[in-house]
Write a structure and sequence with these properties.
The chain has about 270 residues and is mainly alpha-helical. It has twelve helices and two strands. The chain is flat, with a radius of gyration of 23 Å.
């Protein structure tokens, strides 16, 4: 039977098409999660690396502190905390959920591909051509954000929280799932935040955002960015500034992208 034209598809046809794309995306995550489950030593090595003072971030910050002749905890021999499991099925549960989140990260480009496969038939030929790099750019930004969260936010947070002392009478013994949640949320939150230029691109395409709007509310965006930085980082100024800088750069890049989209739309209107 011949495939229906996109314009002729009913609402139920679109729902059916969306269902199959979601099923394929879910299968991609499940397969990636299964591989992460099998190769658990590799995944555990990644997650536990920020706990060691040999982690690259600590090494570079230690060298910077020594160069500036500043006393810092980044040059310590180890972080003052131990990881424990306080539930019967704690390690098994951590294994399952870590594999699922790892599957989401590894399968992210394929999930984007399924999303794009569903959206692209409804676009004009010119729009499809101008958006061909969607999957590549979105995946790059996501993995860049994950790397930023993993190599910057997670170690800064761990170092601050491990060395923060409420009283000398209490030693740090963190639950395994709590530790993993900190590393996971730092990486995933940064990955999705780094998608800001892509989000602004599509919001501009549909007319919900303009470069004038983004410029007008830039100062409010600055306040939101600082609040966001304070939420996802430990409460010290240096960490918040380090996190805020790339987000502000992304916001500025988003303004340029929005301006390019509007300029191209105006050019097409003139030629019509």
């Amino acid at each position: 039977m011949a495939k229906k034209n996109v314009d002729e598809m009913s609402f139920l046809d679109h729902l059916e098409d969306l269902r199959w794309h979601l099923i394929r995306a879910t299968l991609g995550i499940v397969i990636a999660a299964s591989l992460a489950f099998i190769f658990k030593d590799f995944v555990v090595g990644i997650i536990m690396a920020p706990k060691e003072m040999s982690f690259p971030t600590y090494a570079y910050l230690c060298k910077a502190a020594q160069f500036l002749d500043v006393n810092t905890s980044f040059c310590a021999s180890e972080l003052p905390f131990e990881i424990e499991v306080r539930k019967v099925a704690g390690q098994f549960s951590a294994h399952i959920w870590t594999s699922i989140y790892a599957g989401l990260v590894f399968a992210f480009p394929y999930v984007l591909y399924q999303l794009w496969s569903f959206i692209s038939p409804g676009l004009h030929e010119k729009e499809r051509k101008s958006s061909r790099g969607f999957i590549l750019v979105s995946s790059f930004l996501f993995f860049l954000g994950v790397a930023f969260g993993y190599y910057v936010i997670a170690p800064l947070s761990l170092n601050f929280l491990a060395n923060y002392t409420f009283t000398e009478k209490i030693s740090n013994a963190w639950d395994l799932q709590s530790y993993i949640a900190l590393v996971r949320s730092s990486a995933l939150a940064s990955g999705f935040v780094f998608e800001l230029p892509i989000i602004i691109y599509f919001l501009t395409k549909v007319g919900l955002v303009t470069p004038q709007f983004l410029r007008k509310y830039r100062k409010y965006a600055l306040v939101i960015v600082l609040i966001l930085s304070a939420i996802i980082t430990p409460p010290d100024i240096a960490s918040q500034v380090i996190v805020a800088i790339p987000i502000l750069i992304l916001y500025q890049v988003s303004i340029y992208i929005s301006a390019i989209v509007v300029r191209n739309q105006n050019r097409r209107k003139k030629h019509v």
